[in-house]
Each structure stands twice: as C-alpha cells, then as structure tokens.
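User: Fold both of these, please.

Assistant: Here is the first one.
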Amino acid sequence: MFDPLDLYTPENAVDTTRDQANVLLSSKDSEVIYDTDFNDEDENLPIDYLDLPSVHYAPSAAILCILLLLKPTDQINFQNSKSRDLTTSQLCLQKGISTELLNITVEYYQTWGNTRLDTTKKICEKIPTLSTTGETLLNYYTLILKHYEKISSSVKDQIIKEVSMRISENCGRTALPTMSRHFSFENLLKNIEIYEPSLTADNLGWKTWGSAFILSQKLINTVPDINPTKILKVLELGSGTGLAGMSWFMKWIETYGNTNTAMFFTDLEEIVPNLKKNVENNGLSENSVVDTLDWAHPKSFIDKYAVEKFDIIIVSDPIYSPNHPKLVVDVITLFLSSDGICHLEIPLRDKYSEERELLWRLLKENGLHVVKRENDQGVDDWGKVDYLYQMIERKRE
C-alpha cells in the first residue's frame, strides 16, 4: 500500500544506485561490498532497483530514458499491456523514447560493465519490469527530484515532469493525470479508445467504470439479434465517457451500417465536452447526438429534440447518491417506449445496498418489469467488483 510518507527524503539520504565507484553498503553489517563480489556474467539474472542509473553520475538523457521506460504501458480493459508482448520499436514508440536517448543509455551500461543491460533489447525488456515495484522506486524518484532541482540540464524540465508523473502513478487512479484507455471486446472488430481527464472536482463521469465495460460486452452480443426493420431510437443515460453506448453503436454500424438508428449520448453539462471528444475520437460523431440531459430537469432535452420515447435505453452505474434511485426510475419511465428495453448494469457496493433496494421497489411500482437478471464479476481501477445486470421492460397487462 502506498504511504505518502514514502515521498519524504531526509537531507542526508544517500544515492544507493551504483555510482562511479560501484560501492554498496551491506544492510547486514555495513561491510563495503564491491561489484566484483557479484556475478554479472549471468545475463539472465533479474534486475533490481540497484541496476538503475546513478542519479549523480549517469547522463541526463539516460535518466530520462529510464523514466520513460518505467512509464505504464497503454491500458487495455483496465490492465496495462505487457511490455514483453511489444517489440523494442513498438515499446519506444508507445513511450516516446528516441533512438538517441536509448543509445546513450546503452552506452552508460556498457561503460560500467553491466552485462544484464548492455543492449537496447535487454534495457527495453528488463527496465519496465521494475514498474511493478512502486514503493521501492519512490526513493529513486525523490532522489531524482532532489538532484535535478539544483542543476542545469537541457532536459531538466522533462525529467522533473516525468518523475512527477511516475510518483503520481503510484498514488492510485485519483492522483493520475489525463490518460487514455483502450477497450477490446469479443465480436467487435475495432478497439474503443477512451480519453479520461484528471479526476478533479469530484467529476466521476470523467472516469470509465467497470460496470460500463461489463455492460458493453452484453450489448455487443445483443445487436445481431435485432431486426433492423425500423429506425431504432437509442438513449444512453449518464454516458460518462461513453463506453457502453459506443460499444452498442459501433457493433450496430459494423453489422447493419450507419442507417436505421438514432443514437443519443447524454450526461450532465460538465461531462458532455469529454463525452463528445470520445465519440469524435471513435468516429461516431456524424451519426449521433451528444448533449446534456439532466435527469432532474429533462424538459429542455425533450423540447430540443422532440423525441417521445426510445426503443433501447442504456444505463451503467447510476447510483452513488441517495436521490439517484428515484431519478433513475423517473427518467427510464419517461423515455422508455411501450415495447422498449432498458439495459441496466450496477456494481454491488455494500455502501449502497439501501439505494439498490429502493431502486428495485420503484421500478416495480412504476410498471417496469425485470425480464432477465445476471450476476457478473469484473475489475476496476480498485480491484475486483461484483455486478448485477438487469434487462427491463414495461410490464404488459
């Protein structure tokens, strides 16, 4: 677990990475140990924190290269892609590492005789593996900050920026800067790219939640069973970053083309700009509407689009406040057509058990009938989560 106190570096902190003398202190008896005591001839030995370039003696370009290599790889389905699955050129392209930076780093390791890291291939394969040891790296990162604040370097600002990013990445999702994720689904040819701003001002709609990912796969699987004989009106409520709605729409276009459908992505006013960005980035803006729909005040949306009812409503993770169950049911009741279907996916958070019970009761009282129910499991930025899916229709007399 990350502890903010790990960021504190005492004034007499010592750089324990291998310096020009390549001297280490044994934590057992303070005996001086030299690199000649290590068997560096075995190139297959795993590397560790002590193999990182000395903050005091390594070229600035080598320090920057290492920081970029420790940058997380692109996220796919809430998991960082594995560096070993990428070629050296693919990894460098993804992390923004130039040939010049990489060559300077190789030269540094060759100069000090580290045979485990003396080629570009070894460096690109082994250095990223250290990114999983976040707490161990924090001391190294703070030494870099302390050192580069005091010296002049052509890449000083970039080093400070990158090391600050690496520290924030070890503080959890809420500390991360803007980021992009990629989502891959069965039966969908294209990946979906999602842009997420920093989670500031408690705007939870700027983050992609696990329920949207689980629901997306279900929605994709339903599209081939739809008979496209009429124009379908589809509404995503509380779209957030738009993953679930875009998954359905992309599968629809892939299966039937971009005709016979009217797709609406909606959320609160402050969420809509980022939602529009994601819809545009995935090539869906010309065939859809992205606009504000305030569940408590839906009249302006109704007046603007004159849409009476929707054939499909998509909702994921809509409950994180005591007043949400009534708002959710009210807006579903208002917009769902007589023969329409609502797809609802919610996480089973212990904290909101009362709100869920109220939601079930209000659905029933408003003539909304659950015709299908499935328990799901998935992951989010904070680990494994249990989910519940419900397919909802208007109760027929």
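And the second sequence with its predicted structure:
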Amino acid sequence: MRLGFALACALLLTSITVSAEPAPSLRLVSEHAIEGMRGGNLSGLALCGKDLWAVSDRDDDQIYRLDTQAGVWHAQAVGIGVPPVPDSGLPWGLRSRTWVASFVRGGDLDFEGITCDSAGNRYIVSEGHAAVLQVPLTGPASWLKISPMMVREARASGMLLQFNALFEGLAINSTGDQLWLAAERQSRGLVLIKRKQTVWDCDGGCVLLSESGMEMQPPQFPKAKAVSRDFSDLSLFNGKLFTLERNAYQICRRDPQTAKVERCWSYADELLKESRRYPQNYGLEEALIVDADGAWMGVDNNFGARADGELRPIVWRFAAPEGGWSAKP
C-alpha cells in the first residue's frame, strides 16, 4: 500500500512542470484601455495591413477595428453577416451546452481568435462550434469547409473533450493555405490543416501536439499553485509559431511543423504588478500578435475590475526581447 502511494505521488509530481531556469522577462512599453466594445471580453487580436482588429467572445454579429490614435483606443464595430454554422463533428452534448450557455452569457459562436492572410482576409475561430469563419475585404463571410477528420483526430488525441475548453486561438500563413489551431486545455494542443482545393484537411496527420498535466504558476502570482497547462492564442511570425500560455504568464516560440518549444519569455513581472492584478486565480490574457518590434497582448477580463479599478478591456504593447524573437537561449 505504501509503495503504491509513493508511486502515485511520484507520477503526480512528474506531471507538474517547473521551469529549471526562469524565462527572460519582457518589457512593457504601453497599455491602452478599449472603449466601445459592446460585449467587452476582448478575446482576439489581428494586425491586417496597418489596421488592428479585435473580436469579443460575446458578439456573434460584429468584429472591431481599433482606432489607435489616442491613448485610450476606441473600438469601431464592423458588422458581419454570419451564415448557418456547419457541422464540424463535435458531439451533440458539447454543442447543446454551448447553446444553453449562450442564453446566459451571450455569444453562441464564442469567437476566441482572429488572424489574417496577406490578401486581407480575416479568419475567426468559433470555440463553441470548432469552426473557422472567413471574412473577406469584400463580399459575404463564409465558413471554411474543414474535413471532419480534424475534429476526430483532435478528440482521439485527448483534445476538444471539455465544454468551454475547445479551440482558443488560430494563425494562418501569408498565402492563406496553412492554418494552425490551438486547443485550450485538458488537453491543450496544436492542430495544423492545409487547404486542398475546396476543403481544408489533414496532411498525413492534423495533430502536432496534445498534452495534459499541470505546471506551476509564476512565483509573482499570489499563492502560486499548480494549474492546467493551456494555450490562449497563437501568432505566426518570421516562420515561427508563438503560443500565448496565460497560466504560465509566458509567450513561447515553437517550430510550426513539430510544435517543439524553442524558447519562452515571461510577462509575469509586468502584468502581475499589484495595480494590474485581477482577482481571478488564473491568467486572463487571450490575444496575441508578435511582430519584429514586439508583441501586442489583450485581456479578456469578463467585465471584472483589476486592482486599480479599471474595468475596460486592455491591450498592452511589449518590446521585442533583447536579440529579437529569433534569439537562441
């Protein structure tokens, strides 16, 4: 009995990740409150040309162009006509819970990420339906035709099993024919699909990564504890995939074909300063854009106030790390 108990404890400990060396810290350059988001809950950011776009997971019928000319930014609503959602292969139980939850919180589609290709097409991931909406510069919006094999493979690997823990972010290459999707948690993971004529499908296999387990919150977090590994957004820059890992308060650079971690950077020093803390016992950052000069990051604060009383969604600008995002450890 004692041997069995000791073995169980050992297995539990091995499932909790503790960084041997702390990730280098990113430097905060500026922060911007957002006014004008009807549903609040900023859940995704994208830089399309010179325009910064945002989505809310409470708004099904509009996205937002951000006016960044002043210190406080204003969100300009842009309506989108959303056609009926296709069947992605999610089981009825998950879809029905999303439908019921929409009556309480709003947002049946539960938009959780936005990205764009070089032609200016915007792509928005619906967590509630595990589907991707394409919004062109002109013409009607349409859902991508994604092979049901994608959802089957993801679920077989342990992803997309929990309500409100489905796809949380996405990234697309500039030519618009490769799309990465991030499953949030329990298990978190990364999926890659490619456009094949009219259908988006797996190329050999869809799943690049699927992992469960726990990791320690950073020591700056009050009463830090072990929490579920998670992804809350993706950004593709300079041929690398960057994952926003909010429970660990870090951004990690990964190989886009294998999902292997190459390097991570922490933002805990800046966003866990006492005045910027939120009362929730987990991270709230859900939006990421990485570029040559730094990173934009946005928070989904669920209309909750942080320690200094700020209620509005916030977008932060971080400087690029010393040596750039391609720097080796």
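The radius of gyration is 19 Å.
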